[in-house]
Amino acid sequence: MQEVTNIKSDFPILNQQVNGKPLVYLDNGASSQKPKVVIDAIAKYYTEINANIHRGVHTLSQKATDAYEAARKKLQVHFNAKYDYEILFTKGTTDGINLVANGFTSFLNEGDEIIISHLEHHSNIVPWQMLCERTGAVLKVIPMNENGELVMAAYDELLSDKTKLVAVNHISNALGTINPIKKIIDKAHKFNAAVLIDGAQAAPHIKADVQALNCDFYICSAHKMCGPTGVGMLYGKEAWLRKLPPYQGGGEMIKEVSFEKTTYADLPHKFEAGTPNIAGGIVFGVAIDYLNKVGFDSIQQQEKELLNYATTELLKIEGLKIIGTAKEKTSVISFNIEGCHPYDIGTIVDKLGVAVRTGHHCTQPIMQFFNIPGTIRASFMFYNTKEDVDALVVAVKKAKMMLL
Ligand SMILES: *Cc1c(COP(=O)(O)O)cnc(C)c1O
Predict the structure, then answer these.
(1) Which of 168, 60, 165 is nearest to 102 (CA)?
(2) What's this model's pTM, rounded to 2 decimal places?
(3) 379 lines ligand 1 (CB under 6 A)
(4) How do beta strands 232-236 and 87-90 pair?
(5) Region 174-192: what's the mean pLDDT?
(6) Proportion of the chain above pLDDT 70, given as a percent
(7) Is residue 366 lining ligand 1, measured as CB closer than 6 Å?
(8) CA–CA separation, 28 and 136 (whole Å)
(9) How many Å lie between the centroid of ligand 1 and the Cα of residue 324?
């Protein structure tokens, strides 16, 4: 494993002061920072090969097309998809979920059921509610327990022949719970329901194998994986992608257009209307290479150590309560301090250079379950260190003293 201090130096943004204090970045659940290789690759693209793709015969266009398609290939290999055309570039997780939810409009009838879970991000709730409104389908929710774990017995009860689709996250962004998605997928398939996995929070930490999981859709965002914003991936099984209608109409997604009839392009272009985020797609590939170079074993080992250390140290603070205590958990710690509003703690620790997220984390139903306005969330990446945890603990202690 590369020394963590060395790894941190891959990220130029981390080497700065905020409010006169060294920056301690613990808001990785919202977006990760970018290593220099990723930042440089963006400049390199625009300096050397920028051109529109899949269009011109000229050399630059060919180079840009080749680089874009090579990135698709990298994603295919990384997630072990069977075919490269099962990998679609999107704007991000939200975009990918909406693509599938829109496509399902023509497949659903009144009374059909969609199952999600209590642990979902708003972007894996609202598109399904909108789909239900369009079709008369009914939304069902897998409940969770006090630890923030899904109640699998209740899931068994919800599944039936009416279930057409199950959409759950791999890892909860608010609580860090790692969900038993393989079990969830297998159970759904017994009822011939499709399964969509929101992998936005998992992809930076776990290398998912979509064939082993046998999921129908797996979705993530580059910006949480050391890549740029505005680009993401939707993996879909070939059979589903062939069945789903296009999401948007326009250039690039057609075979032939006349005013009488238009035929659609083959996969994956059927779903990629218009000029995409070319630099984003290419650099997403660079980010994937970077993560694999660090290695997912090293990533998980470092993050596990950080999670254990931070949990132990934070719990030494009197009145501090961790929300989300699942047995299977990734490096996310949501907490509250008795008598303090999360927003006030967040504001004070920021003055001390520590960046955490405060609020509902786009998961209001989880906050309603625990009957809290929000939490303070520290979320770690492999480039964080024990010193970062120490800085967090000191800052939280100071904030508590000032507020109580
Ligand atoms: C961040 C996140 C999303 C939304 O991702 P965008 O990049 O904002 O589209 C969805 N689900 C989970 C679990 C997330 O963590």
Answers:
(1) 165
(2) 0.97
(3) no
(4) antiparallel
(5) 98
(6) 99
(7) no
(8) 37
(9) 18
For 371-386, what is the mean pLDDT? 97
In Å, what is the CA distance from 9 to each residue of 6, 38, 333?
A: 5, 13, 24
Instruction: Give 186 Cα–ligand 1 centroid separation in angstroms.
Output: 24
> C-alpha angle with apex 317: 315 to 323, nearest 5 degrees?
45
Which pLDDT score is estimated for 372?
95
Q: What is the pLDDT of residues 158-171, one digit of tens each?
A: 999 999 999 999 99
pLDDT mean over 296-311:
97
Which residue of 93, 217, 223 sits with most ligand 1 atoms within 8 Å of its CB, as the best mutation to test the pocket? 93
Residue 234: CB within 6 Å of ligand 1? Answer: no
In the numeric block, which tokens belong to residue 30? Answer: 């919202």
**Which of 123, 231, 233, 234 should be mutated for ligand 1, with most atoms under 8 A from CB?**
123
**Per-residue model confidence (pLDDT) at position 56:** 78
Q: Is the pLDDT of residue 1 over 60?
A: no
Catalytic residues: 362
